[in-house]
Amino acid sequence: MISVVAMVGSVKEDEFEALAFCLKGTRKELVGWGHEYLRCLAGQIGQEYEKRMGEGKSVDEINQLVDQIIPEFINHNEEPEAVDLLLEVERLSALTDFTNTNNFERVCNYLLSCSDYAADTEEMQLTFKTAFDILKKFKRYPEAMRVAQKMNNIDLMGELMNDCKDAVTLKQLAFMLARQRNAYESEDADLQGIISN
Question: Stretch 155-170: mean pLDDT, rounded?
């Protein structure tokens, strides 16, 4: 209760009282306090995570909060907030577990747009890989192939070619590989003929 009150009545701007009181409490049934409260916590979690990592402290409590907040965001069409929060706590790969047939396209579109603004190459590759894993999970092979080609990762391209069982989709993937002149080689003679033009 004090955490919720601190959300609106915080004395100092740089102190995250809502999060501090939340961490001192039971941290159960946070969803019941409403969406704005969860958004407030999510906004404070990033700075607290960074502070703890800098001091070498445990972030387990933070991750427990994130595990409660992310499903709520995902289930209420707040995919960008969920992705941003997972980026801040360096757990983007966990996003694959939270996606479903109703939201995976929005999640992937946001991830791919985030990659343009990545702080470094490692973060860009992580956003691409997460999008790839989600697309592959839902058998969206052509979209996943585009992501693998952006990453220029032959292993991921091979993964898709081996995982896909539909003959027409396989040919489409082969044409995509041929168009981009990727160095992937297929054991199937027909597909290799397409790939090598």
Answer: 94
